[in-house]
Design brief:
293 residues; alpha/beta; Rossmann fold; N-(1-d-carboxylethyl)-l-norvaline Dehydrogenase, domain 2; six-stranded parallel beta sheet; three-stranded mixed beta sheet; oxidoreductase; NAD binding; NAD; NADP binding; oxidoreductase activity
Length: 293
């Protein structure tokens, strides 16, 4: 199977590497061409333009946001460049409006489109343990399934409407931000009563909250070390929270906890921690509780 892969950030690079290692015929493109070097050395081909990646059985795009996806699709005529039977799998976290627009434009052009955002951080991408949310025509999903299963631990079908996969991803990240924020708040509260944050975090993550959402972020809170290149950047959490709140507002779904969490994200970014791991939210709670005064 020939696979085109566009977007070699922290997630995309790991995902594409797993495809190369699994002996797929992979051709890659990235706006910063130097990011292709390691993959080419591993066995991938480097495309001169994004359109060169579209002549494949499956085209995967893993770009930062709506604007990055639109730039590649529009500037390089990506939909028009797709082969007659090529399936475009967009694995980025995008807005509901963009999900709908991409699905409509591909359908109008007679091309197959699958939305397949993933749950998991770069470390999980490296280990091929991502959870893949796939929505689109069933035949297109089945065509892409060998690649999706190579990159992830499980493929979760989400229906034929592409936006369903995206709304599940946004809802999940909404819950993740809320979980990390409340864990930081609780750690600050117990610290005020003399409980070491590390002790509290160990108790909750080995008992009532023994789940990846808590266990994945507690160690950084304990160490107060938030510079994690394999982590989920706080600024990306803010972006996804904005998309989730917009999706909720479009259907008149009240999400008051989301508004509060978004405010905390703003406070954290104002303190200059946007490029740090999401667990840096704990420092906002510590400052509010005057723990370090």
């Amino acid at each position: 199977m020939k696979i085109g892969f566009i977007g070699l950030g922290a997630m995309g690079r790991a995902m594409a590497t797993n495809l190369v290692n699994a002996d797929f015929d992979v051709i890659v493109w990235n706006r910063s061409a130097d990011k292709c070097k390691a993959l080419v050395e591993a066995g991938a081909k480097q495309a001169d333009t994004p359109a060169d990646c579209a002549a494949a059985d499956v085209l995967i795009t893993m770009l930062a946001d709506d604007a990055a996806l639109a730039a590649v699709v529009d500037e390089h005529g990506l939909i028009e460049a797709l082969g007659e039977h090529t399936v475009h799998v967009n694995m980025a976290t995008v807005s509901i409006n963009t999900a709908r627009d991409m699905a409509r434009r591909h359908a109008d052009a007679g091309k197959a489109y699958v939305a397949a955002p993933v749950l998991g951080r770069p470390d999980m991408a490296k280990a091929a343990k991502l959870q893949v949310l796939a929505a689109g025509p069933n035949a297109a999903i089945e065509t892409a399934r060998p690649a999706l299963e190579t990159m992830g631990a499980k493929v979760w079908p989400a229906g034929e409407e592409a936006e369903r996969a995206n709304v599940i991803k946004l809802a999940t990240n909404y819950m993740l931000v809320a979980a990390v924020e409340t864990m930081g708040e609780a750690a600050s509260m117990t610290a005020k009563y003399g409980v070491e944050p590390g002790d509290f975090l160990e108790i909750i993550t080995q008992s009532v909250f023994a789940s990846p959402a808590y266990q994945g972020y507690a160690p950084a809170m304990k160490a107060r070390d938030y510079d994690n290149p394999e982590g989920f950047k706080l600024a990306l959490g803010a972006k996804d929270m904005d998309l989730a709140l917009a999706a909720a507002a479009a259907e008149n779904v009240p999400m008051p906890m989301g508004a509060a969490a978004r405010q905390r994200l703003s406070e954290a970014m104002a303190a200059g921690t946007g490029d740090q791991d999401l667990s840096a939210l704990a420092e906002v709670s510590r400052r509010g509780a005057h723990l370090d005064d």
